[in-house]
Each structure stands twice: as structure tokens, then as C-alpha cells.
Amino acid sequence: MRIPEDVRxxxxxxxxxxxxxxxxxxxxxxxxxxxxxxxxxxYRANVxxxxxxxxxxxxxxxxxxxxxxxxxxxxxxxxxxxxxxxSESLNLVALGLEWKKGDRIVTTxxxxxxxxxxxxxxxxxxxxxxxxxEGDDEGNLDLSDxxxxxxxxxxxxxxxxxxxxxxxxxxxxIGKMAKEEGAIFVVDAAQSVGHMxxxxxxxxxxxxxxxxxxxxxxxxxxxxxxINEEMFDIFDPPLVGGGTIEDVDLxxxxxxxxxxxxxxxxxxxxxxxxxxxxIKYIEKIGLDKIEKQEHKLVKRTTEGLTELEIxxxxxxxxxxxxxxxxxxxxxxxxxxxxxILDEHNIMVRSGHHCALPVMKRLGINGTVxxxxxxxxxxxxxxxxxxxxxxxxxxxx
Length: 396
Description:
Blueprint: H1 5-9, E1 18-19, H2 30-42, H3 53-72, E2 80-83, H4 86-96, E3 104-107, H5 117-126, E4 129-132, H6 143-150, E5 155-159, H7 171-181, E6 184-188, E7 207-211, E8 223-227, E9 245-248, E10 253-255, H8 269-285, H9 287-307, E11 312-313, E12 324-327, H10 334-343, E13 346-347, E14 349-351, H11 356-362, E15 367-371, H12 378-394
Parallel strand pairs: 1-13, 3-4, 3-5, 5-6, 6-7
Antiparallel strand pairs: 2-8, 7-8, 9-10, 11-12, 12-15, 14-15
Helix pairs in contact: 2-8, 3-8, 6-7, 9-12
């Protein structure tokens, strides 16, 4: 498969716009849409409930999708739980664990709100203590401080890739620290799965969350929560009801085995099938090719912005910089810059990116964010830089 030409042929929207908003949601290839259409048109039924052939086919495809997801991140079949998105997955972790006063939770100053607010709420509700690993303005964590803070911690929660700064955090090293201390390790992998290799065993994850509509090129409304089998006995399902039980009396109930015990009610069947199709598409391309393409795009974008004297944020060490570039064009507001780019059919994101503590640390009210996937091209980056050059000239 030629990169990015062949991928662009499978995504018609790439012929109409320059889409640099992949951190928010990625575009969907035709094979993914077809896989979902097949479910809705040929074997539409609920799963795990019926003996008729449509239900049996739907159940088979749904559970086959779980196996595809598990293999993709190095997990076991029963460790994969389908959710709505990364935010729901991370909230479920916080809600399903037992807490007591004095429990220590360690996280970073760069987290998406969805990997910060749940822990803040636990601290407020149960008297747990929230501690923050130190880092610099580029998003680089102080690993020596991490080691100190993790000692005696109950839980450590870290994003793999910052959606605001693009920095790739050392989750393998931090996971090892957590493991050595007996702490629960939670990874927000919303911006890494589908863009780079993610192996839950390698990074020592106890819980890991990601969304189908970002890196995996799947649909919206489907997410994944990986639960290490060692957590099954201590992680209580926050939601119970249909599908989660083995037996029920008027007084009490007995939960069924994972993963079904963690999936109450009718799941997003079409979404799971679409997610699996997206993962198969990613595997067909190859994660190594995706990483290489995104690195080229980041390198040219940051070089171009530097040449134009446009301030950009994130790690200067591009080996630690994923396919996300945040920048500003003073004195313009980020939304104004995004609107100008939109006039040239270039789609970017502007604002605080659900990372307000990061923006406050940098003393800014937000950034413009260009984020990439494998179907983006160097030619698109050059077009983007050309618009930025004209914009800078108009301000002088």
C-alpha cells in the first residue's frame, strides 16, 4: 500500500479538504463504513440474547471484533470491554475501584480533563490525596520526581500522548515504577492507539483506555477499556443489569464472568464491528509506516513554523513528538486563526483542548492545533504553511 496515496483513495473527504483535526476524530475509510453497513443491512440483531441466526451472526461478529482489538494491543480476549469512548472508560475505572481516606493518586500536569477530573472527584469524595508529577513547559516529565511520587501510591494515571502538546510520555518506565510499588497503573491511550505500537503487557498497564474514532479510524460512539485480568477481583462493575449476571434473586445477584460482567445492556454492536474493521485497516497499512509518515509531517510543520517565527508548543526532541502540533499566531486569538485556515479548506482545532491546566501553565488562553494521520501528505503541510506565511505577512 502506497502511503498516503492509497489510503486517500479510501477516504473521499481527503479530496475535498485538508483535514488536520485527527486528535479530535479521524476520517473513516470506506472499508470501515462497509463493515458497519453489512451489520445494519444483513444481520442486524442484538447479541447474546437470541437463538435465531441473525442474533447468532451478530454475536459472532461482535465477539470476533473483541478478539481483533485484544490482539492489537497484546491483551487477552476477556480483558477487553467495549465502552462509549475514552472518557467513559476512565470514569468507569475511578467508579469501580474501592477508595479510602489517605489513598494516594499520582498523575501529570498535562492530562486531558478526562484523566484528571475523575481522580479529582475521588480525592474530594473519599479524602484521597492527588499528587502531580513535575515536568517542564514542553511536556517532558521529571522521571526522578515520578519515582518519588509513585512510592506508596495506590494508583498512577498517565496519558501516553498529550492531545495538547503532542509529547509522548515514558509510559513503559512509569508503568514499571508503578508495578514495583504495587500501584494500579492506568493509561490514557486515546492519542496513541492506531498511531504507534501499544502493548499493554510491555507498558505494565492495569487499565488502558482508547476511542475507536481517533487513531483506529473507526466510528464514533465506541471505546475500549482494557482491564488486566489481575484486576477482575477488585474492580467492581460500576454499571449492572442486563447481560452482567449469572443469576438473580429478589435479594441479590451473582455476576457473570468478564468481559460480559462489565458491559451492561445492549452494546454498540455496529460500532464494535466498525472499530475492528478500522484496526484491520491499520494493520494492513502497518503501524511502522504510520509512525514514519506522521513523523515526516511533524518535522516539516515544526520547521516551517520556526522559519515563520510562529511560536509552537511541545517537545523540541521530535523523537518524543507525536503527530500533534500546537501553535499560536500573536496577537490573533486561536479561533481567529482556525477560521482563516477554514476559509482555505484547512480543518484544525482551536481552544484549550480539554487541557486547561496546560494552557494556564503556558500563560495562554488556548492554541491552534494541527494533528495528523497517515492519509495526510507533505503537500498538504506545504499548503498549510503557505497560508500561514501569508497570514504572518499581513500582520507585519
